[in-house]
Amino acid sequence: MPSIEIATLALILLNVVVTMKGFGDSRFFDRYKFQVGAIKARQWDRMFTSGFLHVDNRHLLFNMVTLYFFANVVIYAFGDWRFLLIYGVSLFTGSLLALSFHRNEPYYSAVGASGAVTGILYSAILLQPDMTLALMFIPIPLPAYVLGILYLLYSIYGMKTRVGNIGHTAHFGGAIGGYATTLVFSPYLLQTDTFIVLIMAVPIVLMFILERLGKL
């Protein structure tokens, strides 16, 4: 089990405290969740505060466990502050993409750290593409970048079909934030891991092409 760094612990504690407050106070939850109409009415803070609320304990646990397992890769590469910046940028880009895709749905709402956590995950994969990962429904270990690409392709499918009660756009936007910020901090990856950088960009480019063609 990886040791837990102070920055990771701080994020987990903040998520737990805000989420528990939301569980016990529906007015608090409604005021700080992501909601298109409210954000367009200039409640911009929801772009960030929504990322610390969760719908239930399972939702919270899944996001925090994922953060715990991948945070160290990013922290060891960049340090605490850049790790926190990647988390924040990913949270924002996740909310921004969700706002863009659902701009004509004033009652569309969402909560969760999934966008930020997906950004950390995508950053970790860029930094250590030789990691092997396995999911419950794919029990065979695969290169991390393969699973990262498959996950974003599934997110595109989810964005198109709206399958499940899942914020696929926020997940995808978070991945974009983590990908871009990691390359800003480590531009050498464009030379040392050119293939990985390019192939992990394929789902991102595909998403923008499909959106441009009106297919999403």
Automatic annotation (TrEMBL):
<dbReference type="GO" id="GO:0016020">
    <property type="term" value="C:membrane"/>
</dbReference>
<feature type="transmembrane region" description="Helical">
    <location>
        <begin position="195"/>
        <end position="213"/>
    </location>
</feature>
<keyword id="KW-0378">Hydrolase</keyword>
<keyword id="KW-0472">Membrane</keyword>
<feature type="transmembrane region" description="Helical">
    <location>
        <begin position="108"/>
        <end position="127"/>
    </location>
</feature>
<protein>
    <submittedName>
        <fullName>Rhomboid family intramembrane serine protease</fullName>
    </submittedName>
</protein>
<dbReference type="Pfam" id="PF01694">
    <property type="entry name" value="Rhomboid"/>
</dbReference>
<keyword id="KW-0812">Transmembrane</keyword>
<feature type="transmembrane region" description="Helical">
    <location>
        <begin position="6"/>
        <end position="24"/>
    </location>
</feature>
<dbReference type="GO" id="GO:0006508">
    <property type="term" value="P:proteolysis"/>
</dbReference>
<dbReference type="GO" id="GO:0004252">
    <property type="term" value="F:serine-type endopeptidase activity"/>
</dbReference>
<feature type="transmembrane region" description="Helical">
    <location>
        <begin position="169"/>
        <end position="189"/>
    </location>
</feature>
<keyword id="KW-1133">Transmembrane helix</keyword>
<comment type="similarity">
    <text>Belongs to the peptidase S54 family.</text>
</comment>
<dbReference type="InterPro" id="IPR022764">
    <property type="entry name" value="Peptidase_S54_rhomboid_dom"/>
</dbReference>
<feature type="domain" description="Peptidase S54 rhomboid">
    <location>
        <begin position="42"/>
        <end position="186"/>
    </location>
</feature>
<dbReference type="InterPro" id="IPR035952">
    <property type="entry name" value="Rhomboid-like_sf"/>
</dbReference>
<feature type="transmembrane region" description="Helical">
    <location>
        <begin position="84"/>
        <end position="101"/>
    </location>
</feature>
<feature type="transmembrane region" description="Helical">
    <location>
        <begin position="60"/>
        <end position="78"/>
    </location>
</feature>
<dbReference type="InterPro" id="IPR050925">
    <property type="entry name" value="Rhomboid_protease_S54"/>
</dbReference>
<keyword id="KW-0645">Protease</keyword>
<feature type="transmembrane region" description="Helical">
    <location>
        <begin position="133"/>
        <end position="157"/>
    </location>
</feature>
